[in-house]
Amino acid sequence: MPECDNPLWPCAMTGAASCLAGFEGMTVVIHGSSGCYYYPTTLLHAPLEGTFILEKEIIFGSEDRLREVIGNLSGSGKRIAVITTCVPAILGEDIRSMLEEHDVLLVDSPGFSGDIETGYRKALAMLAPSVDPATPGVNIDGVCLFDPFYCGNVLETQRLCAMASVPVGTIFSKDRLERVHHAAAFTLGTNEDFSYGVGQSLGGMLGFDQIRSSFIRIDEVIEGSDCGPVFAELDAQEERVVQGCDKFLHRYDPPSTAIFAGSSYARFAAETLTRYLDAEICCIGTRNVAGDSPFPMIEATSLSKVQDLIHIHHPNLIVGSSFERSVSGNAAFVGVIPPLRGQVRLYPTPLAGINGTLSFVEQVLNASIDKRP
Amino acid sequence: MPSNPLPVNSSRLGGCTLTGALSVTSHIRNTVTIIHGPKGCTHHNASLLHAICLDDDRMVMPALISTALAESEIIFGGEEALRTTIRHAAEQNIRALFVLSTCIVDTIGDDTCGVCAEEYGIPVIPIPTAGFLGGNFQDGMNNALIALADIPSPCPPNGGINLIGEMNLEYEVRENSAEITRLLSLLGLTVNLHFVHDITFSQLSLLGAARLNILRSPSLIPVGEYLRDRFGTPFIPTFPHGLSDTLAFLALVAVSCGIDGSAVIASEMARQDEMIARCSDLNRSPVILDRAHTGDDDLRAAGELAARLGLSPCSDGNGLRLPVGSAIGTDGTRRMLHRWRRAIHA
């Protein structure tokens, strides 16, 4: 069936906005109607501009309106990016030549062209990131404003890099715009679903194993690094996780778990729960195309697919978004992907890094204990 | 911040007809709404409605189906995708299907109404939306209500009152509804139908039975006029905002229904006076009435309330900022009063 009921993942236009709005020094303009503007604005909590086009601009052309908006925004010293929505994308207007007197980055990323990851990568490609051999340290990759853990992931990765005396290069995509072209030669990933691959990857930051091997690589390739403190903390905190999970298993059976997430976070959740809680991963439904994984994954991008999987497997722990929580019945729930509605989130909680694993396991244990009879 | 947030451009900020129509159709149980367009349009709205559901734990997440148009359908047309989606959806155990179009399918010229007119075994009701090409959020809402008004036949009056166009995306929609229901009950009147808020498809048959329609806001006057022409039901153009407006509303409803409302109005006035007297400690002046996200009616109600309390609005920006919210009826005004007290404390 081509149709999709209650689609759970945003469109490519939102993806492009979530990338570009993360760069300080960039003004992002959504070229479309107010309806298309409101969603990324409320989702990303970032300042976006819009052309708010009306029917007359579709009939008579949007050049005057685009010029009006871009003219008002120019002169601020910021680079302007224009993201096209569905209707302007098919009108056939030569937007680039309309705005040739301005240094505008035009990102053709209408909603029908794909999902959020498609738009995110397309926008970042338009910025043409590059390595500057003079920039020391490691970049942080996979940071997307759409991800509720992005801020915590950045802070946690910066903390661990500081412990290892490794400078942080460019953060993709939450940094000053000019740093896009001065990336370091090496990169740490925080969420592969939004990775771009600038510089040589030293590994990821999801889960103790990934962190350990990434910092072993850092020790090997980055001169002046001292990863001993990171390894010491890894050992100490992993022991705490082991003890906490062991205490849980004294009294309770491992959770039978259904995981719904982007493939990167899904794999992290599955590996962590299997390793420390001997959990049964009864199903993994991914929002995007599944990457390499030792766990079987299938795409689950509609609410009915999620309901079907939950109905078939009867998990007692569900990892996902508040969409999943709304159909989770009596199962324990832990949120790892947006939307995470219906809960107050003020603290920049990570999923990456040592604290990310601690936080995730802590939530799993507390949610599971709360749901025990 | 939106570009050009000037009054001259306010028409540009009116939102999407799709969201307006969905705010209506998603409140009719045992139906499904199909959104003919790319998946993203449906996701944006599903996410919004999901948030509303979490704020209102009595609401069930509505069934929205996207025809999920991709680049190939945008190039070659999406009518077959719509036809297939309707056929699949019609196999469910539902009473009716609503079909909402998006701006992109209007641009490529899909004949949405033509596809809906084919036989599927259940009513398939197209609602003119077309995203921003069909107008704004309010137009979408009005179009949906008018399309729904065509479904039921005229029926004998039952003496009840219809509430028309309650704002289902409003955080305090149930509280506002409860306040209007309370005011009507003071006059011995009951609500016949919430058109449309949390109803079943079969309840639509009651639409023509009311003696009076009360619109949520004057922007629904085209709907009120349509219902008057179709069923002969008179209408009052808005819910009351603030204290004196509430008393005037009671008087207007009483006259419209041929009831002597004088005792009820006197009693409600006494209730309001008592509420004001209890807040005599609210004497922090000067104050600023926060206009953000505020309609003129609520601002007027807030101004009246400030005057009753002896608070002096100032314009130099140095006063205590008081939030202005939806002040529907006496109870809505009382809730705003509590927020003002909170503003003084924190």
List the keywords:
heterodimer; A: 373 residues; alpha/beta; Rossmann fold; four-stranded parallel β-sheet; 14 helices; 16 strands; 43% helix; 17% strand; globular; B: 346 residues; 3 domains; 45% helix; 13% strand
Question: Could you provide a short overview of the structure?
Answer:
By secondary structure, chain A is of the alpha/beta class. Helices cover 43% and strands 17% of the residues of chain A.
Write the layout of secondary structure elements.
The complex is a heterodimer of chains A (373) and B (346).
Chain A: E1 4-5, H1 12-20, E2 23-24, E3 26-31, H2 34-44, E4 49-50, H3 55-60, H4 63-73, E5 79-84, H5 86-90, H6 95-98, E6 104-108, H7 116-127, E7 138-141, H8 150-163, E8 168-171, E9 175-176, E10 186-189, E11 200-204, H9 208-221, H10 228-251, E12 256-261, H11 263-277, E13 280-286, E14 298-299, H12 303-313, E15 317-320, H13 322-326, E16 332-335, H14 353-370
Parallel strand pairs in A: 2-9, 3-4, 3-5, 5-6, 7-8, 7-10, 10-11, 12-13, 12-15, 13-14, 15-16
Helix pairs in contact in A: 1-7, 8-14, 9-10, 10-14
Chain B: H1 17-25, E1 28-29, E2 31-36, H2 39-55, E3 64-66, H3 71-76, H4 79-90, E4 96-101, H5 103-108, H6 112-116, E5 124-127, H7 137-149, E6 161-164, H8 173-186, E7 191-195, E8 199-200, E9 212-215, H9 221-231, E10 235-236, H10 243-256, H11 262-278, E11 287-290, H12 296-309, E12 320-323, H13 329-345
Parallel strand pairs in B: 1-8, 2-3, 2-4, 4-5, 6-7, 6-9, 9-10, 11-12
Helix pairs in contact in B: 1-7, 7-9, 8-13, 10-11
